[in-house]
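re the bet — no i am not wrong, look at it urself. input seq straight from the record:
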Amino acid sequence: MTKALMQGLPHRRAICFVPANLDRRGETLVFRQMRRAGQQLPGEETEVILARNTSGVLACAGDDGYPYAVPVSYVYANGTIYFHCAKAGHKLDALLAEPKCSFCVVDADVVLPERFTTDFRSAIAFGRARLLKDAEKLAALRLLAEKYSADYPEEIDKKIASSISRTEVIAIEVEHLTGKEGIESVRTRAKCGDLAETHDVS
């Protein structure tokens, strides 16, 4: 990611990978521990999942107490998830009414019928959404365009200029992030670790 693309965006935020953390508002954030802790991915690997994928499911508080979950295209940078939307709609109304939300990305999902299971890898982020304005909004749109239309750099500024007035850009500042993988992947890691130890000649 180039320095020019990052101009106008805040510096990287600290992300919590454990159940409790003190956020920048001075509030104590408490999140559940993963029940199957042995399947939890390291924080760095979880961030890689967010960075390399192109779609995730945003979950927020919808109308009349119903949860609202919707797939969106996004970009992840500096501990923040960015996506754009129209200036009116269910998604925007929900986040303006209640900024707390979660965001899920499925990185892998392989059905293993003979084992009656799946081999999966996913990430879930919790945070608070806010509307971006001015330089932050422009910088986030550039990040999105660079991710999805990198082969057309000469058209990016023109496209942004033609759409920015009818587009909202939302940032989810990640406060808690967890990643999980299927038990089959855990077993494969353990097996590879055993093989590495067996062939270690140091």
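see?? The beta strands are 20-22, 28-30, 55-61, 67-73, 75-77, 80-86, 100-112, 117-131, 167-181. told u. also The mean pLDDT is 84. so pay up
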